[in-house]
């Protein structure tokens, strides 16, 4: 887990007073459709359970003012880059890897990517799946749904495209904090789904899994979440499950070198990866029982930032540059030499940087009550040899955070550029 992360997306609609919801038979009197009513929950920070309880009370006045629906948010499928990379992070996410079934090759893979692209375009527009729609997302809008596709190293062997495999897809090296489950790592194909509504996200996952039937089967699948847009009084950097502000130093699209750090250039190699990116996916378990035994001061020294507001221990606000040379009265560095934030700074790693767009996860509790929870680490870069790998190697040599995390699954995938209108994702590879 590295310090640069993704700030929470500003809410598309500022928080406003929430009128009490209506009962189903009072929708018409209140001027609200069921779709619009359901969409208000995310915009105001209400959880679905609370909204459902409020509906049951049937206390809405007949002249209740409809709220702007968060469900109306819509991302674009076709474009220079695939969706789900620079779009604001969503409240719900699913990650999945698929393996081609025995006997399936390049032809079957091309047909599958064509189906997946058609389905993704429709679902991101808030439309039903092109066939056998399950009805799970009826009444919901697009809810900022994004669907992203990538190829693992093994995909090129399965399809006879070894000569088109990028050099950047070399297997990641072993790291000391790795306790990897091979069954939950790697894969021929990778899918990322994000949405601001849980049902919309699940609907997309189920539709893609059905599309894959006969061509590919699920290898592994993980579920994640983020803070919902509108849950805070004003836009704020999100917190991870350790309670730390997490995302302060993430590269921003407004940075002059953002494109070259995150995306393969138009004249890059291989040609089919133009405007694409490489994603490293890691399931990082947080050892929360051990972490929560630390005092506040100890936790802050591990990270190098104040827990309350994310400001560096050297002073200032969240966005103040760290003063790595500042010392305390005892002559020691205010930001410890092994602090996570110090080690991961790009200027301490030859400029290495990556765009992080993670989800938190919680998969229940072990038999002894230990929470199985942590971070679905997702980072994007133009070249993992210059992004993730050098930073992780440095963390491996003495990061103060390492005793409190464990990497349990891993994958590296090539994510091609966006599909033009009339194209499917990966067409330049599979038909080139």
Describe this structure in words.
This protein is α+β, with helices and mostly antiparallel strands. It has one domain. Helix content is 23%, strand content 17%. It is built from twelve helices and nine strands. The two termini are 37 Å apart.
Question: What's the helix and strand layout?
Answer:
Layout: H1 27-30, H2 34-44, H3 48-57, E1 92-100, H4 106-124, E2 146-152, H5 153-158, E3 189-195, H6 198-212, E4 216-225, H7 258-262, E5 277-286, H8 288-291, H9 296-303, H10 340-343, E6 355-356, E7 359-365, E8 371-381, H11 388-396, E9 405-415, H12 427-430
Antiparallel strand pairs: 1-3, 1-4, 2-3, 2-9, 5-8, 5-9, 6-8, 7-8
Domain Dyp-type peroxidase N-terminal: 82-226
Function: Involved in the recovery of exogenous heme iron. Extracts iron from heme while preserving the protoporphyrin ring intact.
InterPro entries: Dimeric_a/b-barrel, Dyp_perox_C, Dyp_perox_N, Dyp_peroxidase, EfeB/EfeN, TAT_signal
List keywords for this structure.
432 residues, alpha+beta, 9-stranded antiparallel β-sheet, 12 helices, 23% helix, globular, disordered N terminus, peroxidase, iron, lyase, EC 1.11.1.-, Dyp_perox_N
Compose a concise summary of this entry:
The chain has 432 residues and is α+β, with helices and mostly antiparallel strands. The protein is 23% helix and 17% strand.
> Helicity range of the residues?
10-25%
Q: Please, what is the oligomeric state?
A: single chain
Strand element count: 9
What is the average of the pLDDT values?
A: 86
- Overall domain count: 1
Radius of gyration (CA) equals 22 Å
Uncertain residue segments: 2-67
Question: Shape from CA axes?
Answer: globular
Number of helices: 12
């Amino acid at each position: 887990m590295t310090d640069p992360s993704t700030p929470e997306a500003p809410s598309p609609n500022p928080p406003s007073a929430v009128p009490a919801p209506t009962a189903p038979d009072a929708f018409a009197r209140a001027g609200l459709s069921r779709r619009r009513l359901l969409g208000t929950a995310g915009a105001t920070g209400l959880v679905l359970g609370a909204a459902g309880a409020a509906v049951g009370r049937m206390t809405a006045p007949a002249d209740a003012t409809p709220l702007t629906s968060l469900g109306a948010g819509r991302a674009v499928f076709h474009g220079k880059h695939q969706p789900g990379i620079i779009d604001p992070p969503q409240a719900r996410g699913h990650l999945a890897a698929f393996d081609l079934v025995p006997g399936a090759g390049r032809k079957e893979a091309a047909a599958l990517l064509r189906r997946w692209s058609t389905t993704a375009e429709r679902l991101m527009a808030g439309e039903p799946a092109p066939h056998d729609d399950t009805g799970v997302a009826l009444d919901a809008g697009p809810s900022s749904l994004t669907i992203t596709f990538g190829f693992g190293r093994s995909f090129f062997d399965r399809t006879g495209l070894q000569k088109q495999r990028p050099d950047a897809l070399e297997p990641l090296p072993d790291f000391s904090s790795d306790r990897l489950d091979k069954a939950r790592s790697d894969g021929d194909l990778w899918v990322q789904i994000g949405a601001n509504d849980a049902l919309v996200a699940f609907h997309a996952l189920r539709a893609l899994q059905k599309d894959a039937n006969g061509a590919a089967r699920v290898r592994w699948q993980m579920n994640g979440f983020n803070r919902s847009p509108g849950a805070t009084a004003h836009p704020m950097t999100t917190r991870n499950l350790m309670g730390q502000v997490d995302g302060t130093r993430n590269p921003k699209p407004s940075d002059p070198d953002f494109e070259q750090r995150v995306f393969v250039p138009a004249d890059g190699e291989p040609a089919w990866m133009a405007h694409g990116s490489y994603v490293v996916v890691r399931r990082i378990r947080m050892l929360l029982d051990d972490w929560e035994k630390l005092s506040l001061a100890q936790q802050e020294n591990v990270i190098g930032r104040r827990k309350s507001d994310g400001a560096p221990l050297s002073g200032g606000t969240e966005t103040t540059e760290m003063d790595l040379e500042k010392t305390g009265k005892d002559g020691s560095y205010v930001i410890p030499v092994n602090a996570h934030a110090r080690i991961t700074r790009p200027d301490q790693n030859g400029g290495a940087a990556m765009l992080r767009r993670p989800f938190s996860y919680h998969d229940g509790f072990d038999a002894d009550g230990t929470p199985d929870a942590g971070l679905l680490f997702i980072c994007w870069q133009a070249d993992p040899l210059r992004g993730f790998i050098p930073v992780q190697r440095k963390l491996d040599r003495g990061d103060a955070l390492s005793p409190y995390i464990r990497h349990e699954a891993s994958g590296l995938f090539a994510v091609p550029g966006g599909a033009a209108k009339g194209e499917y994702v990966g067409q330049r590879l599979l038909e080139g």
